[in-house]
């Protein structure tokens, strides 16, 4: 999966503000330069990442952190080879695990019958699913040991920031398999988005969840007419059918003289964010990250306080959304 930053010319999410050398923020807003009135000082821009289609490729398990432990079966290798190893996706898992004492364990084909998740209702459609938020559930199968259940009691998960697996899977014939703890863990170095058959920058599974097909959304469509194209709504994991749901800064405030600036926006657990600033919108002026790395979405309001904008006559603040561990 390849990504490139792209600045969309409309429907983006930035806050532009101008501060006077003296006086309050209210006074600075009165002096705002531009076509906007001093009361309408929010202007938004969205910086999104363009996603291109992908197919099942090499395992995304870190070769140096590829082992899980079962008390009754010993170590299982999640990347026995690059081409056959496990693949953790945004919606489903695929590939194989190998244990010297149990043989091969199949995580799924990567092609669920629904085009979204494995139903786990037949030998033709089984596998381990991922809910985009870190939870793993479903069934893996080993010819020598039967079904392995990734279920609620074992709480199997992948950490969307580190890629580390935790929790347990259970097999009636083998007992509990520990995916990771403080001593060891299986770790994915990326999370694949899955197939993008029509090459429109949106995962097929996401399109089916929101539209039921692959034809409704295109690389140029904006189904809910909210100014954010559908492919941008995929990057932000907002609802492309709800005109009130799109990535945007929802509140901005600053102390007098701009000593502190507070910015907030609605986030998704399935996404990560960074805050960028620059002094001019000119392409020659670089965006500077103000985030301590990527910020984890919490499913609600996410906010940051900026402290380094003092003394600038104007600044632009931009929120960037990204899929966790996107390749």
Descriptive keywords:
8-stranded antiparallel β-barrel, disordered N terminus, 5-stranded antiparallel β-sheet, mainly beta, globular, 2 domains, 327 residues, 22 strands
SS summary, helix count: 3
Strand numbers in spatial order across the main sheet? 4-5-8-9-11-12-14-15
* Biggest sheet statistics: 8 strands, antiparallel, barrel
Average per-residue pLDDT, rounded, comes to 83
Question: Can you describe this structure?
Answer:
This protein is mainly β. It folds into two domains: 157 residues, no CATH class; 114 residues, no CATH class. It contains three helices and 22 strands. Strands 4-5-8-9-11-12-14-15 form an eight-stranded antiparallel β-barrel. The termini are close together. The N terminus is likely disordered.
List the helices and strands and how they pair.
Layout (H helix, E strand, L loop, with lengths): L2 E5 L6 E5 L6 H6 L16 E5 L15 E4 L3 E4 L9 E2 L4 E2 L1 E4 L3 E4 L21 E3 L5 E7 L3 E5 L6 E2 L6 E7 L3 E6 L23 H8 L18 H7 L12 E6 L6 E6 L5 E7 L9 E2 L5 E2 L4 E6 L7 E9 L5
Antiparallel strand pairs: 1-3, 2-22, 4-5, 4-15, 5-8, 6-7, 8-9, 9-11, 10-11, 11-12, 12-14, 13-14, 14-15, 16-17, 17-21, 18-19, 18-20, 18-22
Characterize this entry briefly.
The chain has 327 residues and is mainly beta.
């Amino acid at each position: 999966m390849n990504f490139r930053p792209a600045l969309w010319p409309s429907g983006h999410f930035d806050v532009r503000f101008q501060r006077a050398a003296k006086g309050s923020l209210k006074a600075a807003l009165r002096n705002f330069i531009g076509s906007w009135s001093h009361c309408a000082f929010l202007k938004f821009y969205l910086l999104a990442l363009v996603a291109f289609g992908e197919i099942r490729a090499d395992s995304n398990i870190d070769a140096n952190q590829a082992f899980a432990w079962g008390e009754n079966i010993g170590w299982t290798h999640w990347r026995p080879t690059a081409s056959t190893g496990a693949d953790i996706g945004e919606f489903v898992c695929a590939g194989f695990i190998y244990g010297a004492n149990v043989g091969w364990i199949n995580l799924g084909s990567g092609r669920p019958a629904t085009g979204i998740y494995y139903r786990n209702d037949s030998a033709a459609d089984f596998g381990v699913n991922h809910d985009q938020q870190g939870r793993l559930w479903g069934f893996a199968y080993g010819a020598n040991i039967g079904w392995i259940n990734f279920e609620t009691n074992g709480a199997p998960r992948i950490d969307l920031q580190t890629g580390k697996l935790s929790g347990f899977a259970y097999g009636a014939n083998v007992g509990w398999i520990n995916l990771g703890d403080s001593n060891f863990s299986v770790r994915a170095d990326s999370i694949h988005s899955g197939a993008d058959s029509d090459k429109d920058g949106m995962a097929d599974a996401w399109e089916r969840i929101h539209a039921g097909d692959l034809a409704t959304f295109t690389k140029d469509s904006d189904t809910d007419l909210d100014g954010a194209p559908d492919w941008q709504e995929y990057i932000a994991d907002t609802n492309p059918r709800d005109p009130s749901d799109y990535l945007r800064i929802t509140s901005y405030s600053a102390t007098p003289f701009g000593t502190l600036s507070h910015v907030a926006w609605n986030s998704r657990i399935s996404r990560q964010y960074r805050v960028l600033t620059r002094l001019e919108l000119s392409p020659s002026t670089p965006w500077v990250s103000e985030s301590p790395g990527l910020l984890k979405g919490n499913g609600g309001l996410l906010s940051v306080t900026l402290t380094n904008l003092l003394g600038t006559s104007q600044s632009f603040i931009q929120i960037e959304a990204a899929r966790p561990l996107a390749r």
